[in-house]
Write a structure and sequence with these properties.
The complex is a heterotrimer of chains A (about 300), B (about 625) and C (about 375).
Chain A: H1 2-29, H2 35-38, H3 45-55, H4 61-74, H5 87-122, H6 127-140, H7 144-158, H8 171-178, H9 180-206, H10 209-216, H11 221-251, H12 253-258, H13 264-274, H14 277-305
Helix pairs in contact in A: 1-4, 1-14, 5-9, 5-11, 6-9, 7-9, 9-11, 11-13, 11-14, 13-14
Chain B: H1 2-7, H2 15-29, E1 47-56, H3 71-80, E2 85-87, E3 96-98, E4 106-108, E5 113-117, H4 139-148, H5 169-179, E6 191-195, E7 198-202, H6 210-213, H7 224-230, E8 247-253, E9 257-262, E10 269-270, H8 279-288, E11 292-293, E12 296-303, H9 307-315, E13 321-324, H10 329-332, E14 333-334, E15 337-338, H11 340-344, E16 348-353, E17 356-362, H12 374-386, H13 389-396, E18 401-403, H14 427-436, E19 456-461, H15 465-480, E20 484-489, H16 492-500, E21 506-512, H17 519-522, H18 541-551, H19 557-573, E22 576-578, E23 580-588, E24 592-593, E25 609-610
Parallel strand pairs in B: 1-12, 19-20, 19-21
Antiparallel strand pairs in B: 2-3, 4-5, 5-7, 6-7, 8-9, 9-12, 10-11, 13-23, 14-15, 16-23, 17-21, 17-22, 18-23, 24-25
Chain C: H1 14-24, H2 26-46, H3 71-76, H4 83-89, H5 99-108, H6 130-139, H7 164-200, H8 202-217, H9 220-231, H10 236-247, H11 249-262, H12 266-273, H13 278-314, H14 326-338, H15 343-370
Helix pairs in contact in C: 1-15, 2-7, 2-15, 5-6, 7-8, 7-10, 7-11, 7-13, 7-14, 7-15, 9-10, 11-13, 12-13, 13-14, 13-15, 14-15
Classes of the chains: A mainly alpha (about 300), B alpha+beta (about 625), C mainly alpha (about 375).
């Protein structure tokens, strides 16, 4: 077990190197020159050159790459080019709001989609199953932007059930008052694809021999569904949910922008707009590391859920 | 990290502000007034219960006047720091008045020497950097703050305000570049601190715009102790603004919320501005006259990037002031006025044409569209005539803009509202002109160059929805004269770089007045500004000659005459096609009193009041 | 791999069986019919038989759909600051001189502006084209043929007055083409990489796995933005490449798994025995047995990429200005919706929802038909 974890951690190094190389290639080499934006409305060639020197982007590429590698190793990405805010401070302060929304959302969406998937799989092939699947497919074809615009207008503004936007210092208030509508929107958007996916996971299991055996032994259908099938279907479901987490940090940017949540996704878009490379690079590397760690965690959780899974 | 250490020093929450309220009142009670004779009356100024909630559509960078670059940081800086000069709140067109200076500067030596006397008795807001001592604002603070703009380490985006102007300053910056250390103690002949309160600025050549520069927030006074205490590796103090202005930073959640509270050390002033020709002014004067300022104790600024969120928040009463941007206008506006629904709520509107200009330029050094030969001029003029500004205003701008007839927009000294451009939308003439100069149509229906080579225009634009609409506008224009067009899409940073290097062919740019003088716009085509602000990379000898004459004389009819000629040169040589100037529509909740958007000033919180008796508050 | 299915040997009649199952399913047939209708439509539009003149401005700006009638425009107009209001914004434009007066002035080389008494003599020759312009203006005042524009169109007009129906048809062509082509690129890359990695194993497997983990570790949004920046904006092809180059990872994982499974099977060993080359074994022997996975992937990607094109348009990396797609239409429609001009959103949105739904349902049915044990 520990050997496995160590080996998996060891394998992350080449991946991380690949990420570093790719990120470097994308931003330092072909990512454009931020000096002209930072230079202000009227700038001379001399000023541009001065800015490039201050930022260190006038150095040869191998030197810049080495600096970047050192930044990753020390987890110190310096400060934002436009605000001078240390990148570490950006990460720590923006992560909280993002997670305040994302963790409740993930828990709720997994539970709801899993329950529905089991229920739908229970009546598989029936009209209800078909109808639910068609509704899901239609729901899938609508952009998240439409959901946000309509929900904010109707539920927050017209009906006044939620604040239109906002964020406070208090965690409870954020979760209950400000976070609820964003969570609901994310939930509505994700239920359709999750349900479709989880249904196939469940169906996958139902067709296994052990289910037939259990049935033959006279185990009740309820018990088969909620105990046997659920336990086995939860493996791919967990993988799916875990794999989602890091991407969601950034993927939730639309919700964060519309509801003024000071989270990571909003910061990324802001950094892209400002060509603030230290921030973009840091967030990319952090998210990449998180992706790798979460994949490992997911694999370890298989083991916990299903002892038959062999970790190689 | 010096920043990390300093973060803790910010007062934690608005809770701490209530404690300060009484001190504010006391200090303001008999304070010397800025604009009127001091009348010692019992007035309650800066009521901490009076809150103005404002919104920014984009995140701020930070509050170092020398380093922050964006409008929103500038807006906050204006409330915290003070420049030597400022603008009269109500006077239109904008009029300079003293702020930290006692009076407007004495200009001598034919516009080469400016003498300012700093008003004694102005104090910085208390900060740990002053080690418990009361710190008075002196002339040396301005000399120090101006030097910071050219310090290479700070890489200030505002260096151009002073570059090439003040005697000895450029040399000091050059020396710092070599040695790596900027000598702030150097005595410069151009920045002479005559005595504690007197600053004399000497210029290399006459410059009538220096007063405007000294009303621009990058030239605000910062204290050297504060910079030395909080500066980061780049010499910047983004998170610890300590100024002499009416407000101070109470709490700051970066790119999300900014809380300001009244500065207890602020001297205050009595509201005594004169109504102008605008009928609204009378109401404003009636609401405000004689009040001790500032009245508003706290300012809460939220950052909301999305149009819909801002508008809904305003309509929901969560915001007191909001600038209505672009595509939202039709939702609450009915042409030039507010919709019935908004008026019923008592919402007020402050509306005027922004001192900005959008213009379409051609790169004058480009082999296809550039140059001063007749056939190239004809090509550019044909394109200029093919463009339908009217349609842009109607469809793209939803009617919230006016056509620019003159390179200097309204609200800027030198603007001539009577001037009419000779360039008009006329595709027939444009086609005839191209026919005349041998731009023949090929078998595929597209025009070729006179020498038979293919003619393809490259229009550069940003990858956003406005960029797409501009593409469509120009595509339609060039289709109407059978010129093939390609779009060059690039990130803003990349476009800016190519533009500054004269490597774009054609783009739509816009310029917002830094200060309300026509020179700020007319310099855009001066050939010495190529690679700097002359995006069209134009060298037109006639224009240069007139421009050089124009900077030697102060604003007035003589300069206007030169500007008229220069405007006509722009039309005839067509390095530009003038575009539009947009309207600014500021929405104001009924509880806000005395608000009028100023075309140049960014923040007006110190000039307004809120009605706490009504439902708001 | 968690997806440890019992191993089935796929019989050669799999396709025939699957087709039989598809025909039996009503949902599959209806959705196939809708998809086929769309394909017909885009074939017609691609050959120029319909919607060729989509870019022509045949209606007035924002002409409403015919079924609403013209009166709605009258009612809707005052709310939107259209023509009349912008006219009232600029009454100052009225005193513009007669074009002929302008021409005469130009011929004489004098300026109308009060700058005419400029001191310098050289500036007399300010306009090098004065005579030409004067001539043109003298002739060019004949009235241009004013196009009459329809006040309503079958499904309304966009802001420039272009027919929304034609735009939707043309947009379908672009979007479906982009979706199919990008799906093809992504599936091809995923299949080839997956086949090579799964079949050869060892360092090739390690290499492609490394490549895969690097690609999946970087947030998709940033990857798209970065690839878009690298490829620059060259047109529809760029979009196909952006989507194709970033989307191959899912197929890679599946195909690699399939090849790992298949390469040990008897039939592959038999092929080895008769001396089939590696390439032959990979693509002639194994591939037909995994092709159903590829087909399902292809259709999943098509749907995903049609939707992704909308997001790309939202981010500003959409189709060029002389091309229309559902993404570009939906993007325009957001601003129009505020003005109460909902028809472009409705047209593009409905067309897209219809196709995407039909395609997804068909994909589901296809998967079920090819993998009957899921039933």
């Amino acid at each position: 077990m520990y050997g496995y974890i160590i080996r998996r951690l060891w394998q992350m190094i080449p991946t991380l190197l690949g990420v570093i190389l790719l990120v470097f290639l994308l931003f330092n080499w072909v990512g454009g020159d931020p000096a002209y934006v930072l230079a202000g409305k009227i700038s001379s060639a001399e000023q541009i050159e001065n800015i490039r020197r201050q930022l260190g982007v006038d150095q040869p590429y191998y030197v810049q790459l080495w600096i970047f590698v050192k930044q990753v190793l020390t987890a110190d990405f310096g400060a934002s080019w436009s605000t001078n805010e240390p990148v570490s401070h950006i990460m720590t302060t923006r992560l909280g709001p993002s997670l305040t929304v994302l963790i409740p959302y993930l828990i709720l969406s997994t539970l709801v989609a899993m329950g529905l998937a089991l229920a739908v799989a229970y009546v598989r092939g029936s009209l209800t199953d078909r109808a639910v699947m068609i509704v899901c497919t239609v729901g899938l074809s609508i952009s998240i932007l439409v959901y946000i615009i309509v929900f904010q207008y109707v539920f927050a503004y017209k009906l006044g059930w939620f604040p239109v936007q906002g964020w406070s210092d208090s965690f409870g208030q954020n979760l209950v008052v400000y976070g609820s509508l964003p969570i609901i929107i994310l939930l509505v958007v994700s239920i359709a694809p999750d349900l479709r996916l989880f249904r196939t996971f469940v169906l996958d299991e139902i067709n296994h021999d052990y289910v037939r055996t259990a049935r033959a032994k006279g185990v009740s259908e309820n018990r088969i569904m909620w105990v046997h099938v659920l336990r086995n279907a939860s493996i791919p479901i967990i993988t799916h949910v875990m794999a989602q987490v890091p991407g969601l940090l950034i993927g939730a940017f639309l919700v964060e922008r519309f509801f003024s949540i000071p989270g990571i996704g909003r910061e990324v878009i802001l950094a892209v707009e400002r060509s603030d490379f230290p921030v973009i690079k840091a967030i990319t590397v952090y998210v990449a590391v998180a992706t790798m760690v979460f994949t490992l965690l997911a694999d370890l959780m298989y083991k916990a859920v299903d002892p038959r899974v062999q970790l190689k | 990290m010096s920043l990390r250490a300093s973060r803790r020093k910010l007062p934690g929450s608005p809770r701490s502000s209530r404690r300060n309220a009484s001190r504010v009142m006391r200090s303001a009670l008999c304070a010397a007034t800025l604009l009127a004779l001091a009348v010692c009356v019992e007035v309650v100024a800066a009521d901490m219960n009076k809150v103005v909630r404002h919104v920014f559509p984009a995140a701020e960078e930070g509050f170092d006047p020398a380093a922050a670059h964006d409008l929103y940081s500038g807006t906050v800086e204006q409330a915290i720091f003070e420049t030597l000069l400022t603008y009269d709140y109500l006077a239109r067109p904008s009029k300079l008045v003293p702020l930290a200076a006692q009076s407007l500067p004495e200009v001598s030596d034919g516009g080469r020497s400016y003498t300012f006397r700093v008003r004694p008795g102005i104090y910085f807001s208390p900060d740990a950097a002053f080690k418990g001592k009361k710190r008075e604002l002196v002339a040396e603070d301005y000399a120090f703050s101006l030097k910071r703009l050219v310090d290479p380490k700070i890489r200030s985006p505002w260096a151009w305000l002073l570059e090439g102007k003040i005697i000895g300053l450029d040399e000091l910056a050059a020396a710092a570049k070599k040695s790596g250390k900027f000598d702030y103690d150097a005595r410069l002949p151009g920045l002479e601190v005559v005595d504690r309160y007197t600053l004399r600025i000497r210029l290399k050549q006459p410059d009538y715009d220096l007063s405007y520069v000294l009303a621009h927030e990058p030239t605000s006074a910062v204290a050297r102790e504060v910079v030395e205490t909080y500066a980061d590796v780049g010499g910047r103090v983004m998170a610890n603004p300590v100024g002499t202005g009416p407000y101070r930073l109470a709490n700051w959640i970066r790119s999300s919320k900014i809380f300001l509270e009244a500065n207890p050390e602020y001297r205050g002033f009595t509201w005594n501005f004169k109504a102008g020709s605008d009928p609204e002014d009378a109401r404003i004067v009636a609401e405000m006259k004689g009040k001790m300022m500032p009245q508003v104790g706290r300012v809460e600024i939220s950052i909301m990037e999305e149009d819909q969120s801002r508008l809904l928040a305003f309509q929901n009463g969560e915001l007191d002031l909001m600038n209505l941007e672009g595509p939202l206008a039709p939702m609450v506006m009915n042409g030039a006025s507010l919709s019935g629904e908004m008026r019923k709520k008592g919402v007020k509107l402050s509306r005027f044409v922004d001192p900005e200009l959008s213009y379409h330029y051609w790169n004058m050094t480009d082999p296809v569209v550039g140059g001063l030969s007749k056939e190239k001029i004809a090509l550019r003029r044909a394109m200029a005539m093919a463009y339908d500004v009217d349609e842009e205003i109607r469809i793209v701008r939803n009617g919230q803009a006016i056509e620019a007839q003159y390179p200097i927009p309204p609200g800027v000294v030198g603007n001539d509202p009577a001037y009419r451009s000779s360039v008009k939308h006329d595709a027939t003439s444009a086609n005839a002109l191209l026919d005349r100069f041998g731009y023949k149509k090929g078998p595929d229906g597209w025009r070729t160059l006179p020498d038979g080579k293919p003619l393809v225009l490259r229009y550069a634009s940003r990858p956003d929805s406005l960029g797409r609409q501009q593409d469509e506008m120009w595509k339609k224009a060039l289709d109407s004269i059978s010129i093939r067009m390609e779009v060059q899409k690039d990130k803003f940073t990349e476009l800016l770089k190519l533009e500054k290097q004269c490597r774009l062919q054609m783009r739509t740019a816009s310029w917002i007045a830094d200060y309300p003088d026509g020179d700020n716009f007319m310099q855009l085509l001066y050939s010495k500004n190529i690679f700097q602000s002359n995006n069209a990379c134009a060298t037109i000898p006639e224009y240069d000659k007139l421009y050089e004459q124009s900077i030697r004389i102060p604003a007035g009819p003589e300069r206007d005459r030169l500007y008229h000629e220069m405007a006509r040169i722009i039309e005839t040589y067509a390095p530009w096609r003038l575009g539009i100037s947009r309207y600014r529509n500021m929405l104001i909740q009924p509880r806000v009193l005395g608000y009028k958007k100023h075309p140049i000033l960014h923040s007006e919180w110190q000039y307004i009041d809120v009605d706490t008796t009504g439902k708001g508050g | 791999m968690p997806f440890d299915k019992p191993q089935h040997v796929i019989s050669p009649s799999l396709w025939a069986l699957a087709w039989k199952r598809l025909v039996a399913s009503r949902v599959a047939m209806v959705s196939l019919g809708i998809v086929a209708a769309f394909l017909m439509l885009i074939a017609l539009s691609a050959s120029g038989l319909i919607a060729k003149d989509w870019a022509r401005e045949t209606g007035v700006n924002y002409a409403p759909p015919s079924f609403l009638g013209e009166d709605i425009e009258q009612a809707g107009q005052p709310a939107a600051p259209g023509g009349p209001i912008s006219a009232s914004d600029k009454p100052t434009e009225l005193p513009i001189q007669d074009p002929l007066a302008d021409a005469i002035a130009d011929i004489r080389g004098e300026k109308k502006a009060p700058g005419s008494e400029a001191p310098s003599g050289e500036s007399q020759t300010v306009d090098p084209l004065a005579d030409v312009m004067a001539d043109i203006r003298a002739k060019g005042t004949q009235a241009t043929v004013a196009e009459t524009r329809a006040s309503t169109l079958p499904f309304g007009a966009d802001k420039w007055g272009r027919d929304v129906l034609k735009k939707t048809i043309k947009g379908s062509e672009t979007s479906i083409f982009v979706g199919l082509a990008a799906a093809f690129v992504a599936t091809l890359l995923g299949t080839v990489f997956g086949a090579v990695a799964g079949y050869y194993g060892r360092w090739l497997d390690d290499f492609f796995n490394w490549f895969y983990s690097v690609f999946t570790a970087i947030p998709y949004l940033l990857l798209i933005l970065a690839v878009a920046a690298v490829l620059q904006q060259k047109g529809t092809l760029t979009i196909i490449l952006i989507l194709g180059l970033t989307g191959w990872t899912g197929t890679f994982r599946l195909i690699r798994g399939e090849y790992l499974k298949h390469k040990g099977r008897e039939y592959v060993q038999a092929a080895d025995a008769i001396g089939a080359s590696n390439g032959r074994r990979m693509f002639v022997h194994i591939f037909p047995n995994v092709s159903h996975v590829v087909l399902v992937q292809l259709s999943i990607y098509t749907v995903a990429f049609i939707k992704a094109e909308v997001i790309l348009s939202f981010l500003g990396f959409g189709v060029p200005v002389d091309v229309v797609s559902w993404g570009s239409m939906l993007n325009e429609a957001q601003n129009e919706l505020i003005l109460g001009k909902w028809w472009q959103l409705a047209a593009a949105g409905t067309a897209m929802a219809l196709l995407v739904t039909a395609f997804s349902l068909f994909t589901d049915e296809l998967r079920d038909a090819l993998d009957p044990k899921l039933k």
